[in-house]
């Protein structure tokens, strides 16, 4: 049986980006994707400065930037009081380059921009990992044995788990399961074949523990979301697009601006998604085992977090560049193990901080449970958070992962 040098579990954004980053430093890898084709849950995402730095390092940033608008401003309207606050998004980096600013992009466009840079045989489809074990070879070296749900077995010298919040690789490492935040979101992409008249920028609305928003991606597509407390009623819609649409129209957006009804009606079923907000406890990331031997994790398998800073995919892209840089000169199992250990040590603190910042951001923006605490949180949010705290958090989130080395 052929032993693969590096196997990447998961063909989402983190997995494909990891394969591309490794290819850029001369490392061949095999991606195991559970579905029949590359697919991304959800319709769009916002990529901030740190994501564009990573995409430039991967050599694909230039393929996406011309097609998407810079996010310059946003508004947050409290529907209970009618008060509106204005947000500004920093668009220039430390070198004055405006093209590094935030943009909302189609998830599939991002995935395809990276995947088309890989050789055709880089991804093995219909390959769902179910378990991992180690095997000692006659020369005393250790390899990983991956068991797939179709009975196939793949052996690998190194494994990188990019298999999402319910990662099999993370479980093998001993990382604790993600926690449920008690909140969820419906997301969709409203399509206007004749064009829409929405002004550029992110518009958000707050009401009774619900936060909704939308942002035009281009002249015809509008990305929208509704975040809300998870209740038994909304759990019933599961992953069925039509149930999601019906529950959204009948329960989630009744008191929101009329645009959201149109968004729900104008969205293609394939763009509609409902997801619970899961996150890994920060101390599990800070003190947990992120690497063992030649096995580690990246993206949501490493640091699942609530999406309240819009940093999930951005930090996953950072992971891939840092990991490839740490493995660029790994020419032996010992080198590989040491490189993964450096990667885990470098990423541990940043991932922990972003989990905490995202959770607090969501807690403040949507209010808390309890009457007096909710009133206090909302007062802080309306008077201070959007003016002073949120811009400070966004500023700290800016990060340049650096370039990949020449090998």
From TrEMBL:
Pfam short name (any one): FAD_binding_3
InterPro entries membership: FAD-bd, FAD/NAD-bd_sf, MOase
Keyword vocabulary terms for this entry: Monooxygenase, Oxidoreductase
GO molecular function annotation: FAD binding; monooxygenase activity
Superkingdom of the source species: Eukaryota
Keyword Oxidoreductase: yes
Keyword Oxidoreductase on entry: yes
Membership in a protein family: Belongs to the 3-hydroxybenzoate 6-hydroxylase family.
Protein name: FAD-binding domain-containing protein
Source organism of this protein record: Dendrobium nobile (Orchid)
